[in-house]
Amino acid sequence: MSHHGVHPASLSLRGVGCRVEGTDLVRDVDLDVAPGEFVGVIGPNGAGKSTLLRTVHRTLRPRTGSVRIDGEDLWALSQRALARRVAAVLQENGADFELTVDEVVAMGRAPHKRAFSPDNDDDRRLVMTSLELVGAAHLAARSYPTLSGGERQRVLLARALAQEPALLVLDEPTNHLDIAHQLDVLAVVRRLGTSVLAVLHDLNLAALFCDRLYVVDHGRVVAAGTPAAVLTPDLLAEVYRVQADVTLHPLTGAPNVVLLPPR
Amino acid sequence: MRIGRPARRAAGSAAPVRRGGGRLSVAVVLPLLVAGLVAAVTAGIAVGSVAVSPADTWGIMLHRVVPGWVEVSWPATHERIVLSSRLPRVLLGVVAGAGLALVGMVLQALVRNPLADPSLLGVSSGATLGAVLVVVSGVGLFGVYSLPLSAFLGALVALVTVYLLARTGGRTGSTRLVLSGVVVGQVFLSASSLLIMTSGDPHASTAVTRWTLGGLGGTTWQTLTLPSAVVVLLLAALAARTRSLNLLLAGEEAATTMGLAVGRFRTEMFLLTALVTGVIVAVSGVIGFVGLMMPHIARLLVGADHRRALPVATLLGAVFLVLADLASRTLASPEELPVGILTALSGAPFFLWLMHRESRGRRGRP
């Protein structure tokens, strides 16, 4: 069970392929997230990670294959029904209008509300709880466009939490955050107990928080498994073209990647 | 469940608690605007070449609704002036002002750009061309509805053209948007003028002026019916979709992840805004900048959340156009100015101030 009493969902992708403007960005991907599992997707720039995620938060229809949530075809659900189960934090976080932070987070309640039904006490409580979880409760009355990039990112995560998702899809949720907030945000997400599918850049953070990792390169899954099984010097050399030393860290028990300067 | 660090941060930062730039409560703003609308309507009916006292104005209208309820203390000419000439004209001001403000607000959310307005985006010019085509050709396949229908189609073509031209990625950049709007608007406007000039109409230049610098003169009860119906339709449709409009502000992809079927919603909104713009232009010509200014003032007053900004912008538009029309009748009396001149005179500086404010705002942001 997650913090809001929603049962975490299972996700399964089979043979998923995507083509955008004539280019195959994702090819024949199989991927699973078990209920409550935190799954990371890593890979170099342009590998197709974000494109893969778009088939799950349903902004890009895959050309081939199937995407299922709790066994149901995700693309057969209505957009609203899906939004009650899957929430996403995307990379884009622009703000051109003067909304306050609590109004932005309250948007997350939209898939649960009917036309003309106003926000009730439960909605307001959920908005505040979500902001507290990401350490942004003090920003509630601030104007969203005046926030820093990192603050916006936490607010958008709070908005996704207010959606009460059974599956959380995160596209580089930590890229604007300072190191303390990177740890905070991932720890919060981890503790929620929802199923999580996240694209992560930082390999050590991925090793620390993910149950399993998928390595994507040129649109294909080239390795999958526990961080210790996946993050090997050989794989890093092949996929990222870097020399690295990987040790199991004595305190965390997770693999620790140290990049070596090119020879 | 709570984590330690955020508490420390919350205590450490003296966050400004002024709510989103000093907003007013809708519970205060809406009653004030309703009172303002009653006052504007009263003035709009009472003031003119023949002055009617405010008491008589309401007396005449009440007498009409419930005969015998008030004692008749006014000359019959006043009753005729109020009921058959001024009242429909003022009501059209209410309807067109509210409609244009709503259209502006929807367009701004659709293109995620605060500089959108039916006249700036060429939508009104598209409607003009549609209307002029019917007037000049004299072809009316759908009777009295030919003119508004053709204006609606013209508005829709212009809107979709500008949208496709200006669209780059999810957000529509200000420069591309305004330039596309100006270009498309000019093309449609020139085509309209050309049609009128070559039509052999002896009053061609007057006709061009009437379409391009709109006015509410000559309104009858018949002219009022269709605009009222479509504006009420738009208002009802939007009232049920305020959350969806808010979601659009988050961007199209984000709105999708929060359950909005963006493509269908955008199509609905394009059809509705083109319909309202077309029908209003068909009866009043192009009245610019109302759709630009009113949503902005509404957001400054109560914030950008459409649940609050929408009713405020609607009322503001109504009050503004009734007063602008009153000014257009009285400033150069006995001559009547096109009300479009007055809305442009107040709207253009507003537009420049907005551009300045926007560029300054962007520099200050991360």
TrEMBL record, chain A:
Keywords for this protein: ATP-binding, Nucleotide-binding, Transport
GO molecular function: ATP binding; ATP hydrolysis activity
Domain ABC transporter: 11-243
InterPro entries (alphabetical): AAA+_ATPase, ABC_transporter-like_ATP-bd, ABC_transporter-like_CS, P-loop_NTPase
SMART domains associated with the record: AAA (SM00382)
Keyword Transport among record annotations: yes
Presence of keyword Transport: yes
Pfam annotation, one family: ABC_tran
Protein name: Iron complex transport system ATP-binding protein
Automatic annotation (TrEMBL), chain B:
GO cellular component: plasma membrane
Pfam families reported for this sequence: FecCD
Keyword Signal part of the UniProt annotation: no
Gene3D superfamilies: ABC transporter involved in vitamin B12 uptake, BtuC
Molecular function terms from GO: transmembrane transporter activity
Transmembrane segments: 28-52, 90-111, 120-139, 145-165, 177-199, 219-238, 269-292, 337-355
Listed InterPro entries: ABC_BtuC-like (IPR037294), ABC_transptr_permease_BtuC (IPR000522)
Topology term for the membrane: Multi-pass membrane protein
Biological processes per GO annotation: siderophore-iron import into cell
Alphabetic keyword roster: Cell membrane, Membrane, Transmembrane, Transmembrane helix, Transport
Places the protein is found: Cell membrane
Family: Belongs to the binding-protein-dependent transport system permease family. FecCD subfamily.
Name of the protein in question: Iron complex transport system permease protein
Source species: Marinactinospora thermotolerans DSM 45154
Species lineage: Bacteria, Bacillati, Actinomycetota, Actinomycetes, Streptosporangiales
